[in-house]
Automatic annotation (TrEMBL):
Residues 5-66 form the HTH luxR-type domain. PANTHER family: DNA-BINDING TRANSCRIPTIONAL ACTIVATOR DEVR_DOSR. The lineage of its organism: Bacteria, Bacillati, Chloroflexota, Anaerolineae, Anaerolineales. InterPro entries: Sig_transdc_resp-reg_C-effctor, Tscrpt_reg_LuxR_C, WH-like_DNA-bd_sf. This is DNA-binding CsgD family transcriptional regulator. CDD domains: LuxR_C_like. Keywords: DNA-binding, Membrane, Transcription, Transcription regulation, Transmembrane, Transmembrane helix. GO terms for biological process: regulation of DNA-templated transcription. It comes from Pelolinea submarina. One of its GO terms (molecular function) is DNA binding. SMART domains: HTH_LUXR.
Length: 415
């Protein structure tokens, strides 16, 4: 526990602590205003003063979100703080840049909150017993009519008395059994049965140690049952570049997803069926370097999707080889299957701290594959079985707000 951080947290007013507590619990500014009976601008003003007093306004967005959740939220819950720090008579004003940070960070700070699962109660319907008096009347009436009918036919058809007696006896016995069965019908008690559906525990993600190099065995051959079929594009000369300022180059092939150009960046709209892939498919490419600007709008938010760059792709591959980055700022060389949202890391994760916009660089030379972020090497891999082929940009996102995007792509050949 840092004494400096504890001192900063103790400097907050009671209202500022209440707002920070509710924000860390995952409430929106509108929900906080309803709980505390204050206006939304007042909520934002208190959060802005929290940013200034805790020094959060001096941090990049990704680091700011991490510090709120991993440093100040545990202190706020567990540390013994004074009831309220002495405050100036006039609250400190919130600078305009800080107010803008507060607005931009609202949905990034809110963690994932699973929907509550209701208890379902199933009741077995009651069977209502018929009224005995009505059934007795009906049985007596049927019994009398049956006896009259048998006597009538026996008289007119000249049957002997013995036969008539036997028929009467049989009819009376049968009707008596029916009467007994119907007079006391079975009664089913109403016994409610309760089926309780317990929600599964939310998985916890532990930070993985950084792995710089890895040399796994060659991938096991898997039948290509889910890989998409496509026609290879004609040869694409290197170097290649695309700024995406207008429409993407006509040499891009969309394998999956709904790829669009938005704000002069290449991305996909909301997509629920696995990885959205757009490719430059040239089976003759071998050694090359890729540089592309990446925008991850809500790093560390539950709604944030993943991104990846697949290299040396070909139409017969059941799984693509690519470097992927998830919403927790973790990168890994992975096997990627189109219809599965979770990549399969080959050599663990490389952890890095970057702002939402960063430069991703991939070098492919022989059996060596190297990934860099803002010039820093994150993870390198030595693997065989991926000898030549083009590239694909990949994105997974279940909401339009969480879709990463790409800009200023450059590919140059390497010797």
């Amino acid at each position: 526990m840092s004494a400096e951080e504890l001192k900063k947290l103790a400097s907050l007013s009671k209202r500022e602590r209440e707002v920070l507590w509710l924000v860390c619990e995952g409430h929106s500014y509108e929900e906080i205003s309803q709980k505390l009976y204050i206006s939304i601008p007042t909520v934002k003003a208190n959060m802005g003063r929290v940013y200034v007093k805790l020094g959060l306004d001096q941090l990049q967005k990704a680091e700011r979100i991490r510090v709120i959740h991993q440093v100040y939220w545990p202190l706020l819950k567990n540390a013994e703080l004074p009831s309220e720090a002495p405050q100036a008579e006039t609250p400190i004003p919130v600078p305009e840049p800080v107010a803008q940070m507060v607005d931009d960070d609202e949905h990034s700070i809110i963690p994932y909150r699973p929907e509550p699962i209701d208890v379902i109660e199933i009741r077995t319907p009651e069977r209502v017993s018929p009224r005995p008096s009505l059934w007795r009347f009906v049985i007596i009436l049927v019994l009398g009519l049956g006896v009259i009918a048998v006597a009538y036919f026996a008289f007119f058809m000249n049957r002997d008395q013995s036969q008539l007696g036997q028929e009467l006896t049989a009819a009376v016995a049968q009707l008596t059994q029916v009467a007994l069965a119907q007079t006391n019908p079975p009664t089913l008690a109403a016994a409610p049965t309760q089926v309780v559906v317990q929600p599964t525990a939310e998985p916890s993600i532990q930070p993985a140690a950084m792995v710089i190099t890895a040399t796994p065995p060659p991938p096991t051959a898997i039948p290509a049952t889910s890989a998409p079929t496509f026609t290879p594009a004609p040869s694409i000369p290197l170097p290649f570049s695309d700024s995406f300022d207008n429409e993407p180059s006509s040499q891009w092939q969309v394998f999956s997803g709904n790829w669009i150009t938005m704000d002069k960046e290449y991305t996909t709209a909301e997509y629920h069926n696995g990885w959205a892939l757009a490719a430059l498919d040239d089976p003759t490419w071998k050694n090359y370097r890729i540089q592309v600007d990446v925008n991850v709008p809500h790093m560390y938010a539950a709604s944030q999707g993943q991104l990846g760059i697949m290299v040396r792709i070909s139409s017969g591959q059941p799984k693509y080889l690519g470097f992927t980055v998830d919403g927790l700022s973790r990168g890994s060389w992975s096997y990627v299957t189109v219809d599965e949202t979770s990549p399969d890391p080959i050599a663990g994760f490389g952890k890095f701290e970057v702002p939402p916009q960063f430069l991703l660089e991939i070098e492919v030379r022989g059996n060596q594959f190297v990934a860099k972020v803002n010039g820093q090497e994150i993870q390198s891999l030595s693997i065989s079985g991926y000898d030549s082929g083009g590239i694909a940009l990949g994105v997974t996102c279940i909401t339009n707000q969480g879709c990463p995007s790409f800009d200023n792509l450059k590919i140059e050949p390497l010797p």
